[in-house]
Amino acid sequence: MGELLFNDTRLGADGTTSCSSCHAAEHAFTDARAVSIGAFGKAGTRNAPSLIGLRAKGPQFWDGRESSLAAAVLQPWANPVEMGHATVPEAMQHISRHPEYAEFLGRPVTEQDIAEALSSYLLSLQPAPSPYDRARLSGDSQLLGPRAERGMALFKGKAQCASCHSLDGTHELSDGKFHHASVGFERIAGNLRNLQIQLEDARAAGQPLGTLVLTETDIAELGRFAVSGNPKDMGAFRTPSLRNVARTAPYMHDGSIQTLDAAVEHELYYRGLTTGQPISLTIEERHDLIAFLQALSNP
């Protein structure tokens, strides 16, 4: 049932939008847009992350505003720039107009049914083995080929990528933590106090955080801070998975970096800037690093 729900465009408030509108299988369950377009053609503020290799528990979304997948899958139903309904109960009424879901269960469908069905389907989307996986499981890094093998050494060492994108055999290739990447924050740096007031007022009015961050571009740039209120989290976002990274352009939380080469260049520059120790790779080394990143994707 989860797969049916995920792909059913009748369930959006406009009758043409589904979960797969922003998470398409042909794009490794992203949408190849900078930011996603939801019901009624409304644009959000965040780049759609891949849904392959998710975990049931742990931070969800770029800002970690939910801690379980079951809770996260309900949010888009009540977001005006995603599925377009005003509330989850309104979405449930919309779903109830399609009797095949109740027939599937033999009873009326509940919010819990939707959460469980979608979560189960998403957890079934496990990554197919990539060249990197095959090399890791065999214990023979030479299977990567010489260029990607050199790139893996750079990834673990000189380029410092593995400090956030852990090569520990997990699905995510991510530490699951929140970091600053100097993307978008400079635009709001002079207006932080006003944004904090706007955030506090919205909370006091009971506005859902998911709706706020996907409809207010500047609030969205607050990142994890919008959830935690911790000043250290200002402009920080969850480390994304590198699974299928060669297939999921554009990059960053706002989709502002168009190519993998440009994303690597940005990350190397910013990491060197924050540590005070510039990371200088030769052209050949950059090509090697890109070759390894491409080896994290399955065809």
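the 2nd protein, sequnce then structure:
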Amino acid sequence: MFYALTQGVLDIGGLEIEHVLRDIETLNQAAFVGTYEITALSFHAYAHLADSYVLMPSGASFGDGYGPVVVANHPLEPEQLTGRVVAIPGELTTAHLVLQLWLPGVKTRITPFDEILGAVAGGEVDAG
């Protein structure tokens, strides 16, 4: 979503932009201390930060058929996840909020986003 900014396609009138690539939980935590003026942010975290940030009209990173999604080593019905451990990318991520609303009895373990698939494949968690 920031291709035009990061590749110099747009004339930004002398503004300086530092493009920082981090996982969403790291960006959520940075937002709580005001590290960045503009940042990606989970909707869950935004609910706690609405007085500090304004939503942009584009850039959402979830949707029908896109995510958040639950993955496992084998097919599981939603009710089979109750009581099992599901890796989440962070406490205030949209994925965690949606999972809590969908299946309140699920146990969770915070796992960095880029390590979730490996944790599922390795049997460290039941799903992610």
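Residues 3-49 form one domain. The radius of gyration is 17 Å.
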